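Problem 12. The chain below contains 405 residues. Write out its predicted structure in token notation.
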Amino acid sequence: MSMLTSSSTSQRKLLFSAGLSWLFDAMDVGIISFIVAALTVAWNLTPQQVGWLTGINSIGMAVGAALAGILADRYGRKNVLIATLLVFSVATGLSALAHSFLILCVLRFVAGVGLGGELPVASTLVSESMPAAKRGQAVVLLESFWAGGWLLAALVAYFVIPVYGWQSAFAIGAIPVLYALYLRRSIEDSPRHIAVRGRGARSFAENLASIWKREHRRSTMMLWILWFTVVFSYYGMFLWLPTVMVMKGFSLIKSFEYVLIMTLAQLPGYFTAAYFIERYGRKFVLVLYLTMTALAALWFGNAGSLPALLASGIFLSFFNLGAWGGLYAYTPELYPTAIRSTGAGMAASIGRVGGIAAPLLVGVLVAAKFSIAWIFTMFFSVILIGVLAVAFLGPETRLRELVDE
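Solution.
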């Protein structure tokens, strides 16, 4: 937090408050990867069922990102942020009571709606509330709370699930209900949004049409490609990570332990990205970190020993999550205030289509006996498409002031 010493107390408070909501979101997303590994044993899930259980969450996130983005441009960032937090925490808590695969899938869809909506709205709120010189850094630091959430998920998986069962992890995921009540009083809406909304709210259709106007078309196209490739690779790789470790011959407990070690590398990935993003720019961070993510994926898929698996997994976490920080910092800067949340939400929603497809595809490929090396080579190729989109279509937004119209 020392990186933001020049920011006002209210800005630091907003970053920390939004960051905690981000942490809870990440914990919910992260815990499902460990729960799936446990349920595969407890419920004898097939690879296709594992793919559906992880994919259904992303279907909800795709719906939630699009809806919340549009609603936040109309009704305010703060109100929608709190609503999404309530939706995903209540649905997660109810998931602990699920006694069938179908009911659990329904609840994971509802939780996904809240999860998908919270992320682009929170990043837009923070982006609009920070000065240009610190804006990118602040959003990357916001994204760094994601690592804290995954770390909590890994700790719950390692210490709680083996003793109290997978239901206990979902019960812990209901805690954000209380935090949402605190947020209602502790944060303020974006001054930029309040000013623009005061001039008259646009219709949903107008906002959607605006992101494809000539002046925004190139950025929208680039963001949709970038978001799809990043989310496809992330959810395809990381939601399957504990299960892949089991497939490589490690016990369930050992796989949780190794994934926990890999997760720790996410924090320095964020912090280095936060430093570079204001020094060298958004495109530099995205191109460098995504290229290194692609190479780490190739290494992980072909790793044949425990040291190689751990080292490649650590590099994968470090660079992939640093790239996520750059992605969230970059996206809101490409649109004016009146359509910023809509643009960010729609890009995130398209990304979630990748998050839906990847776990399902991996399940199909595993069932068809494709090797882990082949699957991670596929992720290597997909990530490079995102790198090319940023390099050739993306403008640099470092130090650029946000525009309102």
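Discussion. Residues 15 and 142 are 6 Å apart (CA to CA). Students who got a different answer should revisit the alignment rule from Section 12.3.
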